[in-house]
């Protein structure tokens, strides 16, 4: 059986997530998730949401755990009160070696095509979906809606395509390394 990859578009419905420069985090995360699903057609894909709806964090983890997914990718966009804060970072749980590998392979693939500042790969034990999903999981923060330069990238279809393509290749590299695909 093909490995199941779970994409988790952050926020949704009554929870817009980060807001700035005319952008809502919930719209971008869903857009990225739907594009990424197309690029990973050789896997069984599940999404924690496929439209603009509110899905509690506990339900997101439950969806992944019940489906026994092989990996879990949570997609987010950052914001800060400081409009100069910008860049791209990938979080994993400190206790997950596979999560760490997945985080570094996705970071390595995306960073060079992203035009975003490198905020690095970070272990974080406090993020709910990373703590509660059984599968190796990462949480991606792809730029800041509150920063003008990041926001203009986040508005560009071409940029989204490029970044999603790179994200897919990072995920595929992980699957190869872990023997989950050819
Ligand atoms: Zn978020």
Care to describe what's here?
This protein is an alpha/beta fold. It has a single domain (4-177), classed as 3-Layer(aba) Sandwich (Aminopeptidase). 42% of the residues lie in helices and 23% in strands. It contains 6 helices and 8 strands. The protein has helices at residues 25-39, 57-66, 97-114, 128-132, 148-154, 157-177, and strands at 4-9, 19-20, 23-24, 44-47, 71-78, 88-92, 118-123, 137-144. The strands form 2 sheets. A 6-stranded mixed β-sheet has the order 4-1-5-8-6-7. A two-stranded antiparallel ribbon has the order 2-3. Helix 1 (25-39) crosses helix 6 (157-177) and helix 3 (97-114) packs antiparallel against helix 6 (157-177). The protein is globular. The structure holds zinc ion. Zinc ion binds next to loops.
Distance between the termini: 13 Å
The share of residues in extended strands comes to 15-25%
Radius of gyration: 15 Å
Please identify the oligomeric state.
Answer: single chain
Helix content: 40-55%
Count of helical stretches = 6
Q: How are the strands of the biggest sheet laid out side by side?
A: 4-1-5-8-6-7
So, CATH architecture? Answer: 3-Layer(aba) Sandwich
Structural class, judged by helices and strands?
A: alpha/beta
């Amino acid at each position: 059986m093909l490995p199941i990859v779970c994409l988790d578009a952050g926020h949704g419905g009554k929870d817009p997530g980060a807001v700035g420069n005319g952008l809502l985090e919930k719209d971008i995360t869903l857009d990225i998730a739907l594009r990424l699903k197309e690029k990973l057609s050789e896997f069984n894909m599940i999404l924690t949401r496929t439209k603009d709806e509110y899905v509690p964090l506990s339900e997101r983890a439950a969806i992944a755990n019940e489906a026994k997914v092989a990996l879990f990718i949570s997609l987010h966009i950052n914001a800060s009160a400081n409009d100069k804060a910008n860049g791209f970072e990938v979080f994993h749980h400190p206790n997950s070696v596979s999560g760490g590998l997945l985080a570094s392979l996705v970071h390595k693939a995306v960073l060079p095509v992203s035009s975003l500042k490198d905020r690095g790969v970070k272990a974080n034990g406090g993020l709910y979906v990373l703590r509660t999903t059984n599968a190796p999981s990462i949480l991606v923060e792809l730029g800041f809606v509150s920063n003008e330069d990041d926001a203009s990238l986040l508005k560009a279809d071409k940029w989204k395509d490029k970044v999603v393509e790179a994200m897919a290749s990072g995920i595929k590299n992980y699957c190869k390394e872990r023997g989950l695909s050819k």
